[in-house]
Amino acid sequence: MQTLTQPDFNSQRFKANPYPFYARLREEAPVFRIKGPANEVGWLVTRYDDAAMVLKHASASKDRLGNMTPEQRAKVPWFVNLFEPLSQNMLSRDPPDHTRLRSLVHKAFTPKLIERLRTRVQVLSDGLLDAVQRKGSMELVEQYAFLLPVTIIAEMLGVPSGDYRKFQRWSNRLISNTTMRDVFLSIPSVVMFTRYLRKLIAMRRSSPGDDLLSALIQAEEAGEKLTPDELVSMAFLLLVAGHETTVNLISGGTLALLQHPEQLERLRKDPALIGPAVEELLRYASPVEVSTERFAKEDITVGGVTIPRGDLVFAVLASANRDERHFKDPNTLDLSREPNKHLSFGLGIHYCLGAPLARLEGQIAIQTLVNRFPNLRLSKPADSLKWRTGILMRGPKQLPVSLK
């Protein structure tokens, strides 16, 4: 048997099907040592129970520099500091800062308020599909899976529609970082994204609207709740997290259905199945492959392995979601799977704030697509598809489909 080596998250071959490798890790090395982007020590945690523990563990911190030893901090390259303006958000903070920042936006993402967006999401889905119906084909990622969630979150934040493609490019570049070379090459995207957000905030400050960004600006102006850098960073997080994961849910979920025509037909015949179907697609396709990193505040024992203070810790959601100890026939797509307590939205205090919105968008987008186009099929072989690279996300880069 081949020796286990660190996976290449920039490899098309690995991203196309990482599941056999994760299955080996769960059996042979469930807490697996890797080298991080800055040559720091990191650990992939692959079993469900261990990953759940990491996601909830009080000593698995989000504060990178604050939990490094002096020796580890001295090894951090100088240019990493350029990312600081975009990292002062609730996803990168521990309590009490995390609690304070999350409280400022959580009311905008309650299930009740998100439900009010149902009509807008449906109208937008119909409009995007109207635009491609006559042609009889589309590139599903660019023309549907991206445009739907990015339009919704941009409207919520008050971002001009002409700017969507700009921050898509910057966002894709930043979340694809795996090596230190990637991090270095993404510096222009950091600078441009930060500059763009500062201009957008200045525009909203002088001309506030009925949007989430204006509300955050008002909170910042009230003092103590939000600093100017936190405002920039929160806008960054909401824009990026508000569309990136849902792009993968819609595109990766559609691909999974096309590869399992019997399940696709079940969904067409029983529209009421869409709720559990999206939960199963979240589990099976795992739009977020690996959770954002944690840092050991102290030595932590996970799965019998001691992770030293300051090391990176990654919960591998795509692996946990297929753990045979937790799911029956985990490699089988079953749209009526019950129970289905997947980890795709995380756990604990960092549980995805936008989960209700992602579910709503995924349900409407996928149901509308499969109902409108009974002959929906791939336009090219599945094994020739290109995949997004990087450690965090997993989804097809492009998904050309025929509609007739």
From TrEMBL:
CDD domains: CYP107-like. It comes from the Bacteria. Keywords: Heme, Iron, Metal-binding, Monooxygenase, Oxidoreductase. InterPro entries: Cyt_P450, Cyt_P450_B, Cyt_P450_CS, Cyt_P450_sf. Gene3D superfamilies: Cytochrome P450. Pfam families: p450 (PF00067). Belongs to the cytochrome P450 family. This is Cytochrome P450. It comes from Archangium lansingense.
